[in-house]
Write a structure and sequence with these properties.
The protein has 13 helices and 10 strands. It has 387 residues and is α+β, with helices and mostly antiparallel strands.
Length: 387
């Protein structure tokens, strides 16, 4: 494929040692952009069903010949089509991806079959108690924003979609100005100017969702507890400190939440905290899986731990451990060419250019960030076993 065959889509290149390279074609067309719930995800599935030059079976066979490592996903912000191949096959792989991403045929006979597949996917998610409870937390934290709904939609949402909806969505969203290609390894392509991809979702204001408590009845014998809030996007100056605070609170077995809930009190086995980073903002949440009788105590401990991290000094030992933990996480994040594709994509979405590792933060900066973001109201989502 020549440089002109990229249809005007800008390409970001990173060198990578070794014989394996990776590609990602990312489209500014995630679920936050869709006019109808579930449309972005259904479109992602259907583009694999055929192009103007190949059938769906031929697309799958070509993927196998290239190594069989092609994949795709829909997030709130974008749709990604990725593959890992021998570096020498990078031009073939890019032609393979762009063919069906840019020029799908959307055969009528595939539409109902693909909807049935997604119905099964939704049913699989609904069988997972943690997923159900987290979806409730999303709705609590994001409110009416598109981030607050499930990416695949509901069964009713899916049934309401038509093939015309898919064709219209692809025509308006899968355009060169909404696409970026990330290539890691292989021969460096001809540079192209970058577009404003990922900037169409306006960052949300520093809104703190009101304190709320929701209970969902789920299968199984364990309770699932999420406590969460909305934090700013990665471009915010507090973000590096918030990442470090999350590591200190729930990143490892010696984190504050793990030590207090699991090691000291024996209230639970699974304890952690994490960030779900998006263009317009970030979901922060702590998770604990525990016996139903321990739910209220667990919620109290989480909230007390958040208040404490904003009021008491963070020790040098905690700072050093958090720095080492994050260094290892960042190293793992660039272990393979595919990992680097994801890292570059995240940098471009949130900052518009590649980013260095997060800077170190001193204790005073962490405490200030904790006071600003962890002392307000929190959303609590609890999954209790069915009676």
């Amino acid at each position: 494929m020549s440089s002109q065959d990229h249809a005007g889509c800008p390409t970001i290149y990173r060198p990578f040692p070794g014989p394996i390279g990776a590609l990602g074609v990312f489209v500014d067309a995630g679920s936050a952009h869709e006019p109808k719930p579930g449309l972005a995800h259904l479109t992602e599935h259907l583009v694999f069903r055929g192009s103007r030059t190949r059938t769906g079976a031929q697309i799958l066979a070509d993927d196998t010949r290239l190594g069989g490592h092609g994949n795709a996903y829909t997030s709130e912000d974008e749709v990604g089509y990725t593959t890992s191949v021998l570096a020498q096959d990078m031009p073939k792989a890019l032609a393979h991806l762009l063919d069906f991403v840019l020029s799908p045929s959307f055969p009528c006979e595939a539409f109902d079959a693909e909807r049935r597949i997604i119905h099964a996917e939704i049913a699989t998610q609904e069988d997972q108690p943690e997923w159900q409870v987290l979806q409730v937390l999303n709705a609590q934290v994001w409110g009416a924003h598109a981030y607050g709904r499930a990416i695949a939609g509901t069964h009713a949402d899916l049934d309401a979609l038509t093939l015309d909806d898919v064709c219209d969505y692809h025509a308006t969203h899968y355009t060169p100005d909404r696409i970026q290609i990330v290539q890691v390894g292989g021969v460096k392509p001809e540079p192209r100017p970058l577009n404003n991809w990922g900037r169409r979702i306006t960052p949300l204001s520093a809104y703190r969702p009101p304190s709320s408590r929701a209970i969902t009845h789920v299968p199984g014998g364990q309770a699932h507890v999420y406590v969460g809030t909305r934090l700013p996007a990665p471009s915010h100056p507090d973000f590096p400190a918030l990442v470090r605070l999350t590591d200190i609170l729930g990143g490892s077995g010696s984190s504050r939440l793990s030590m207090e809930i699991r090691e000291n009190r024996g209230l639970a086995y699974s304890v952690g905290a994490g960030l779900d980073v998006r263009v317009a903002g970030t979901l922060w949440c702590a998770y604990v899986g525990c016996h139903p009788s321990n739910v209220d105590t667990v919620v109290d401990v989480i909230q007390a731990t958040l208040a404490d991290v904003a009021q008491t000094p963070i020790s040098d030992a905690e700072l050093e451990s958090a720095h080492t933990y994050r260094t290892i996480v960042n190293t793992f994040a660039e272990e393979t060419a595919g990992d680097v594709v994801r890292k570059v994509r995240q940098d471009m979405v949130h900052h518009g250019c590649p980013q260095p590792p997060l800077p170190a933060c001193d204790a005073s900066r962490l405490r200030a960030a904790a006071e600003a973001w962890f002392t307000g109201p929190m959303a609590v989502s609890i999954g209790l076993p069915d009676d």
